[in-house]
Structures are given as C-alpha cells and as structure tokens.
Amino acid sequence: MTAGTEVVARLAGRRPLLVATDYDGVLARLRDVPGEAVPEEWAPDLLRRLAGAQDVVVALVSGRGVQDLRATSGLAEPFRFIGSHGAEHDDGLDPAVAAERDLLVDALTPLVEAVEGARLEVKPAAVAVHVRTVADRAAATALLERAAAAAGPHHTAKPGKDVLELAVTDADKGTAVLRLAEQLGADGVLYLGDDVTDEDAFTALAPRTGAVTVKVGDGDTAAQLRVADLDGVRELLTSLADALGA
C-alpha cells in the first residue's frame, strides 16, 4: 500500500463518509466523443462496493448534466449525482437557468459552426465549446478566445482540456460537494478529480477536517494527494473499500 492509499484508508474510520469523484478522466477515459466515455471495467462494481458499506455515500460529480451523466455511465441508485459543475443536483435545475443557457447557445452557435471540427455541447446549465477534434490548432485557440469574449459578465468561464465551458450560474464543484457533505452530516470526505474545474473542490475542502483530495494526472494542483492515472484511482478506491470491509 502506498502512502496515499494509507491516508485514504484512514477515512474508513470516519462515518458518515462521502466519496465524491469526477467522472471523465477519473472513472472513464477521455474520449473525443463524450458519449463514448464509458466507465472503466472495474469502476461500477468498485463504486457499488463502496456504496454498500455502512454510512457511506458515493457521489458522481461532473460538468455533464445529470441526465447525460447517468446515461453515459450507466449508473443509477444508490449513487448521488451532481452535474453541470455543481449547478444541477438530483432535484433538478431552475427553469430560469435553462432560459439563460439558450440565449448563450444562440450567441455561440455561429462561432462554432465556422470552425471545422469544433463542436458545441449544450448542457443543462452551461454551454461547452469543444476543440479536441479541430486539426488547425491556431483556429482552435482563436475559437476559444472568441467564445470567451462572447460570454457576458454573468457567465462563468470554466476552461478544461481542449474545451471552454461557459456556465450560466456561479455554482462550482466545491460549493456543491460541501453542500452535499453538510446534508449528509459527513465526518469524512474523499474527492477525486483530474481537471481544472476540480480545483474548486480541492480548494473548498482544504480547510475541512477529515477531507482528503486526490488529483489524477499531471499539473499544478491544490489537492493533497496525487495518482498518476486511472489505474491509480482503482488502487486507491480498492484500498478504501478493503478498509471499509465492503
């Protein structure tokens, strides 16, 4: 067992325990087509092991909408879902947020259609401009810059890997995870993430006693621990499940 997995395993003594994890890049490999990002073979059963332990709640946290997250992952109960970077919870989305999103779609559509290979993804509380499949990298960079300039001051930019997401609320993964932890009365929290937007959760959880944050992959981070890849995620979560007796 590595030093990191030892730290995570000590969470087994804290109940209630919230295990919250980003989806893409943590439980599923990044894909050019988001709908093809199915979970790693080991992920569903391992998550169910964790969720089956006494006083443990497992939550999937994503920039995807909750409906998309459920459909792509194939996961349902007993898991909790936080979508749209914290703007969408199991109990749904404010209609006013959807209306503001549609205005943003109208503004960004002609910009994206002008760049071959670019794609516009409409989420419940955000619009994302994807440039992973744009062959002309200069055009890809320019498109992201134009998309950012087209956003209004009330939109929140969430840059990622070859994507710029513009949210129509100021919610983030950090506030959403804290909200769920408080609802559960969680004594311990584990959060895993790989992308820029996960830094909000790492930062929000930093002052909380009994919280452990894990960065997946390279890059600067506020997380306490790091694993190299999805195999590292599997090792870490398996160690926790073993410690929980799940």
Automatic annotation (TrEMBL):
Catalytically driven reaction(s): alpha,alpha-trehalose 6-phosphate + H2O = alpha,alpha-trehalose + phosphate
Cited Gene3D superfamilies: HAD superfamily/HAD-like, Trehalose-6-phosphate phosphatase related protein, domain 2
Names of the cofactor(s): Mg(2+)
Entry keywords, A to Z: Hydrolase, Magnesium, Metal-binding
InterPro entries associated with the record: HAD-like_sf, HAD_sf, OTSB-like, Trehalose_PPase
Function, as annotated: Removes the phosphate from trehalose 6-phosphate to produce free trehalose.
NCBIfam families linked: T6PP
Family membership noted in the UniProt record: Belongs to the trehalose phosphatase family.
Identification of the protein by name: Trehalose 6-phosphate phosphatase
Taxonomic placement: Bacteria, Bacillati, Actinomycetota, Actinomycetes, Geodermatophilales
